[in-house]
UniProtKB/TrEMBL annotation:
CDD domains referenced in this protein's UniProt entry, alphabetically: AAA
Molecular functions per Gene Ontology: ATP binding; sequence-specific DNA binding
Organism field: Calditerrivibrio nitroreducens (strain DSM 19672 / NBRC 101217 / Yu37-1)
Residues annotated as domain Response regulatory: 3-117
SUPFAM superfamilies (alphabetical): CheY-like (SSF52172), Homeodomain-like (SSF46689), P-loop containing nucleoside triphosphate hydrolases (SSF52540)
Protein known as: Two component, sigma54 specific, transcriptional regulator, Fis family
Lineage top rank: taxon: Bacteria
InterPro entries the record matches: AAA+_ATPase, AAA_lid_NorR, CheY-like_superfamily, Homeodomain-like_sf, HTH_Fis, P-loop_NTPase, Sig_transdc_resp-reg_receiver, Sigma_54_int
Signal sequence region: none
Entry's transmembrane regions: none
Amino acid sequence: MPSILILDDEKSLREILEILFINEGFSVFLARNISEAKKIIDNYKIDIILSDLVIGKESGLDFIRYTYENYPGVPSVLITAYASPDTAMESIKLGVVDYISKPFDNDELVKMVKSIVCKECDKKYPDELKKIIGKSRFIDELKDKIIDIATGDSSVLITGESGTGKELVARAIHELSGRKNKPFIPINCGAIPSEIVESELFGYKKGAFTGAYADKKGLFEMASGGTVFLDEITELPINLQVKLLRVLQERKIMRVGSTDEQDVDIRVISATNRDLEKEVDEGRFRSDLYYRINVVRIELIPLRERIEDIEPLAKYFLKKFSDQMGKNIKEISYPVMELLKSYDFKGNVRELQNIIERGVALEKSDRLLPASILGYFSKKIADDEDVLPELKLDNPIQLEKILETIEKKYITSALNLTGNNQSRAAKLLGISLRILRYKIEKYRLL
Ligand SMILES: Nc1ncnc2c1ncn2[C@@H]1O[C@H](COP(=O)(O)OP(=O)(O)OP(=O)(O)O)[C@@H](O)[C@H]1O
Ligand SMILES: [Mg+2]
C-alpha cells in the first residue's frame, strides 16, 4: 500500500484529499503545517508528498527542501495556482515532479500521483490473488510467478518455514488454473498413520484387507481433474515414494488389492518446511521423486526478511478479526506496530495472525494498544538490546537520531510495561509526566 503525505493548511481540502486517496488504497498522512509534516516524514515511510505551495505564512517548498535533504528520492507534487519561473526552477531542483493547480480535477490528480508513486499500482492482480497480502517486492514477484505457472500442469514444490503461506499459495495456484472447478485436495503426509497412507491415497478394492467391505476411492481419484496438495512431503514413507513416482511418471494409479491400473488426471503441488535437498543427500527421500516434484520451485522467504509485509498483514488481520468478533478496532497504535516490525516471527505469518487475533480479543478501545499484546511481547521487550554503532573516524554517526531512537525505544517499552499508564511510565523512566506527554506527541507514539 503506497503512503502519501498531504501538507495543506486548508481543512476542507485535507479532508477531501484524505478520502480521495484512502479510496484509492493509499495510507494517508495529513499535516497542517511544516512542523507536523516533518514529524510524519521522520517517523513513517512516505512514498509521495502532496503539498500546497502556500501554507499560511510558510512555503511548501521549505518542507520539500527538508525532504530533499533528509530523504532524497521521495517525489513530491506541488499544489499551486501559479508558479513563478523562479519557484518552478527551484522546485524542480528539489525533486518536485509535477504541479497541479487549484481547483483541480480529482481523477486527474489521482492519475498523476499514481503514475509517479508506483508503476505497479495499476497492475491489477486477479481476485484469486487478493488473499495474498503484502507489499514487498517478494510478494509482487510471487504473484507474478503464480500467474505464470498456474495454467500449466507441471508439478510444483513450495518450500518455506512454517507459517509462510505454503498452503495459501498452493490454493491460489489451483484457483487460477483450469482445474479450479475441480477439487483441491490437501493431504498432510505427516498426519496419516503410515499403515493407511497407501489406501488413503490410492483407495482399495473390496476384500483387499480385513475391514475392506467395499471398494473405496483414494484421495488421488477424488481429486480427479483437480489438484493434490501433498503437504509435508518428506514424511511420505519410502515405499510410497516409489508409488507416487509412478503416479507422476505414468499418470496411473492402482487401488490396494487391485491389479488394474486406472488413469488419473491430477496436478501435484508438494510442500515442505524441511531441507529437502538434505533429505535426498541423506537417503531419506528418493532423488528421482525429488526431480519429479521439483519441476517448478517456489521458495517462500521468512516474514522477518520482508518487513514491509508486516504492516499490511497486521492491518488485514486486524480488520478480519475485528469484524469477526463484532468489534470496531480501526487502528494499530504506533508502539504496537513498531514492536511487530522489530519482532523476528519464528512462526511467520501464522504467528502474526495469532498475535493480532489475541490482541483484538483483549482490546477494549478502538485502537490496538500495547497492553493487549503485552503478554506476548513482554519477554521480547526485556530481551531487546540496543545495538549502538561504533564511532570511528571513517564511521560518522547521527547522534540526534541515535538518541531519538533510544528515547523512543524506552518510552515505548515503558508504555508497554505499564499497560499504557502514562504516570507510571513517566516514573519508570524518571521523567516528568509533562515531558513524557510532550515526547509521546513529538514521536507520535500513541
Ligand atoms: N501473504 C499472506 N497473506 C495473507 N495471509 C497469509 C499470508 N501468508 C500466510 N497467510 C496466512 O497465515 C496462515 C499460515 O499460512 P499457511 O497455512 O499457508 O502456511 P504454511 O506455510 O502452509 O505453514 P505450515 O508449514 O506450518 O503448514 C494461514 O492462515 C494463511 O492464510
Ligand atoms: Mg501448511
